[in-house]
Design a protein that fits this description.
This protein has ten helices and eleven strands. It is of the alpha+beta class. The structure holds adenosine-5'-triphosphate. Catalyzes the phosphorylation of the position 2 hydroxy group of 4-diphosphocytidyl-2C-methyl-D-erythritol.
Length: about 290
């Protein structure tokens, strides 16, 4: 048997780093939302008790370093499963781009194996696996829009954003999330107003959301990747309601509710960068999520 799961990327609307914890992780407060730029994760039964992994992109590990492999291994150990699985990942999300590509593949693997092996996992049981793989995996289990706190693994759902286009521009470099956090001095850094962002989302105030976009890590990555500043400036000149770098970067996104602006941004940015996408937002996975 074979099951297929969609694995959507995320963007950070607000990302605040509060400081470093004793366990080495950073304490964060982030508002994230899923977007319709997605990998495809396929899980198929194997006759022998092994995990095999194949991806469509170069430079993505095809062994135990892949987060999808780690998710499968963790489920097998936790539920004492002696069955094999072949995981195949069609990568559409740029790698090491601040879009949680690896984390969403791990989350999709958890959802897929729950179905393939009839595990009847609750949302909480999926979260227990997710936190063992990485901090962003927990958000990706359910997706949609949410506040993530702690090291990013504590998830509180939020209402969906008003409909809009998300235009993503990925400079031709990749950055290491760990390195960006290492170089951050959270005391002297800028801190976005996460609570105001949550309020703007709750009152469906699209322009308010755009004005409140903020990311503590942006200045750190910008120092290393000069293209980020240039892309932001160019997008501003073309026109967008809001512009920000996602996660630890280097992908920059713009939000707009106007199709004509979306078209202008795509055309204008294509001559500037080779990886340009325009996508819609992605709803939370229906079986698991309900905003109360
Ligand atoms: P985040 O936004 O969570 O910080 P990111 O989008 O910046 O993550 P990823 O695309 O997840 O970064 O890639 C980071 C590293 O993770 C890659 O360099 C790669 O070696 C490793 N990796 C492991 N599994 C995967 C996967 N399934 N897809 C992509 N990268 C993976």
């Amino acid at each position: 048997m074979k099951v297929l799961e969609k694995a959507p990327a995320k963007i950070n609307l607000s990302l605040d780093v509060l400081g470093k914890r004793d366990d080495g992780y950073h304490e964060v407060r982030m508002v994230m939302t899923s977007i319709d730029l997605a990998d495809r994760v396929e899980c198929e039964d194997l006759p022998e008790d092994t995990i095999s992994i194949r991806t469509s992109a170069p430079y993505v590990p095809e062994d135990e370093r892949n987060f999808a492999y780690q998710a499968a291994k963790c489920i097998k150990e936790t539920y004492n499963i002696h069955r094999g699985v072949a995981i195949s990942i069609k990568k559409n999300i740029p790698v090491a781009a601040g879009l949680a590509g690896g984390s969403t593949d791990a989350a999709a693997t958890i959802r897929a194996l729950n179905r393939l092996w009839n595990l009847e996992m609750t949302y909480e049981a999926m979260l227990d696996i997710a936190v063992q793989i990485g901090s962003d995996v927990a958000f990706c289990i359910k997706g949609g829009t949410a506040l993530a706190t702690g090291r990013g693994e504590q998830i509180a759902p939020l209402p969906s954003l008003p409909p809009c286009w998300v235009i993503l521009v990925k400079p031709a470099v990749s950055v290491s999330t760990a390195q960006i956090y290492k170089e951050l001095d959270s005391k002297s850094a800028d801190h976005p107003d996460v609570d105001e962002m949550i309020e703007a989302i709750k009152r469906e105030d699209f322009l308010g959301i755009c004005q409140l976009l903020g990311n503590t890590l942006e200045a750190v990555t910008m120092k290393k990747v000069a293209d980020i500043g240039k892309i932001k400036q160019h997008m501003k000149t073309i026109g967008a309601e809001g512009i920000l770098m996602s996660g630890s970067g280097p992908t920059v996104f713009a939000l707009t509710q106007h199709e004509s602006r979306m078209q202008r941004l795509i055309n204008g940015m294509k001559g500037y960068c080779s990886q340009v996408f325009a996508v819609r937002l992605c709803k939370p996975f229906p079986l698991l999520s309900k905003y109360e």
